[in-house]
Amino acid sequence: MIKRALTIAGSDSGGGAGIQADLKTFAALGVHGMSVITSITAQNTYEVRAVYDLPLNIIEAQFKAVVEDIGVDAAKTGMLSSSEIVKLVASLIKSYGLTVVVDPVMVAKSGSPLLKEDAVDALVKYLIPIATIVTPNKFEAEKLTGFTINSVDDARKAAKHIAEELGARAVVLKGGHIEGDEAIDILYYNGTYREFRAMRIHSRNTHGTGCSFSAAITAELAKGKNIEESVKVAKEFITTAIEYGLSLGKGCGPVNPIAWLTIPAEKFFVLENLQKAVEMLEEYGFLVAPLIPEVGMNIVMALPKPYAKNVNSVAGVMGRIVKIGNKVKASGPISFGASRHMARAVLKAMEFNERIRAAANIRFDEELVRIAESLGYSVSFYDRTQEPEEVKKVEGASIPWGIEQAVSKVGQVPDVVYHRGDWGKEPMINVFGFTAVDVVEKVLRIAKAYKEVKS
Ligand SMILES: Nc1ncnc2c1ncn2[C@@H]1O[C@H](COP(=O)(O)OP(=O)(O)OP(=O)(O)O)[C@@H](O)[C@H]1O
Ligand SMILES: [Mg+2]
Q1: Residue boundaries of the structural domains of the chain
Q2: Which of 152, 326, 395, 436 could form a disulfide with 301 if both were Cys (CB 3.0 to 4.6 A apart)?
Q3: In sequence order, what are the beta bridge partners of 107?
Q4: CATH no. for 262-454
């Protein structure tokens, strides 16, 4: 049975934070998400233009409608706006005995207040004492404790205070706004501390970090994980969501909770496509064998943007594809990071056309170039003897330089790029395409025509 998570929070019309972030996070973590909307905000990436608090009876009705029918494995609270809403929500949670993550939201990313001054007292009095976990950021923790928080040590003291003096079962004091090379979150629970660390990501697109983080903890609690495990997953989850944040709007763009789902799905698609491509090459080995270069052939395919970042986001064949008599064979498994050279060629091509995500290398032969042209493929080249000294000096820079040369000659990423080699460098042809299978189809057409010419 799918687990059920409930968010009690405000709506963010910009889709970055609030209910919208929570529901995306619940979906990405595989739980059924439900919502009790407390306030409607007219909000975008840089400002909150208007706030409308829903009437208390409508908030209560939403809550009872879902709790009495669907049921809730864990809940979270976000923007609660006024002391009346805080009191109502606290009493509902208490009377149904829900596990609840309290995100004590006080201001929006853009700086606008989301909680009225007097509501902080209600939060402390009614909600924090019944919280399973409270997730304040630096400013919220300062407000709740009266301490100044500028270091991990300060954060530890404040976390302990919120648990022991204010009555929360556990506290995660988030380090997003505490300076340092790492974003360090402090969990205080059962008299002990745990730290969750990640490298600080330098990004503007952090709208919704706090909401998505507390929603992720809630989803994991709903699935039956304990407090520590839930925070651990949520930390990994939010780091990914920030890393792949979306550059939208004029202000702080939304984080990307769906990255958590998309990356594994895209990896699977790439591996499956490459597998099929390699099977096709092996099946038509009698055609392909004459095209295998001395150094072996590789075929690679990259994750789509924005997930394609470096050679580890590009899959290829470990140990390359080799010729054995008139057959060809992959000499190792398919994996990400397996090829450096071809991966760099594709990453460079993607800078000009992000849809071109795959490539293979075949032996250089004037005849093969002529055939590619006669089949209607766009063909370009670069001259390795012209490679500038400063490019030669940088490890891994030669191929991207060459691809850029070839692209600029024809004003697009061509199907085929060749070079005639240099001292100690075998001449080579690269074939580009949308997918690995697409590349193999081109290679097979060229190989078939080559066989006809040669026989
Ligand atoms: N630049 C960053 N790089 C890596 N992790 C970050 C960064 N900023 C925030 N985090 C992490 O994101 C989570 C949310 O923390 P943060 O302190 O930003 O919450 P918040 O201020 O409540 O966010 P919001 O303003 O969206 O409500 C924490 O796990 C924190 O460590
Ligand atoms: Mg927050």
Answers
A1: 4-257, 262-454
A2: 436
A3: 113
A4: 3.40.225.10
